[in-house]
Amino acid sequence: EIVMTQSPGTLSMSPGERATLSCRASQSVTSNYVAWYQQKPGQAPRFLMYNVSIRGAGIPDRFRGSGSATDFSLTITRLEPEDSAVYYCQQYGSFPLTFGGGTKVEIK
Amino acid sequence: QVHLQESGPGLVRPSETLSLTCSVSGSSISGPYYWGWIRQSPGKGLEWIGTIYHSGTYYNPSLESRVTMSLDTSKNQFSLNLRSMTAADTAVYYCARGTGYDIWGQGTMVTVSS
Questions:
Q1: Which of residues 35-64 of B touch A (CB under 8 A)?
Q2: How far is A78 from chain B (nearest CA, A)?
Q3: CA distance linking residue A46 with residue A36, whole number of Å
């Protein structure tokens, strides 16, 4: 099983700042099949990104994914108040599918 | 537009079996996609339960002994059965499309209590 470890646990930042969220896999992710999700309280997760860096439909270009093998990151280039949420990474390159524990982004 | 909707009981007694259904519109479950169940315990992260597609299933090893998933192509639905429920299974249960999940249902809260 590939363990996905996200850091930091919480990011507290101001609007307009750049946020970088890290996701590390315990072993290389097949075909770089990594996805990112955004979840706000009381809502289902929202699909942001697949194959590391391909944005889903309607996802603003301020969300950018990068990385390969075991180290991945999600960058939000200019934080907006509505970006306040928990962000999860997930590997889907091999079963069992696994999620990271999440990074909470707080907007000051 | 693709839409997924979970349905099932909100309350299950300990030791009983949870049965949930995911109704899919705008996408055929007989097509090329995989379909999955994910859950989230209160205040916790996301846990993959299992994945089903036309040729088979994959289950989380930690739940495999208690889980069964199935497809009903006539109704364009897929289902989850989770046996021997305990309080630790209390969670919001989501159905979703794919393996990188691009479409999610709204989720359904399931509480295990006598």
A1: 36, 45-48, 51, 58-61
A2: 24
A3: 9
